[in-house]
Fold this sequence. Notes:
Number of strands: 0
Strand content: under 5%
Order of helices and strands: HHH
Structural class: mainly alpha
Largest sheet: none
Amino acid sequence: MKKRKLFNGSFVEVGDMPINVAIRKLKQKLDDSGKLEDVKENMFYEKPTTRRKRKKGAAKSRWRKKLQEQALPKKLY
Length: 77
């Protein structure tokens, strides 16, 4: 009987499919799981104050974008 290894992550069984398709499927799984963003985020240390400032700036830009979408268009004359 064939034993299967248990993997603690995302993996794709290649089998008889082309390697390009397998790589594409693996990339899609990594994007869906969000693990790649976590690794990139934790690659360098970010001070808590810098993190708060970055998140606050992103919230401000989202708010400005929302207000701009709700605003009436300028008169064109």
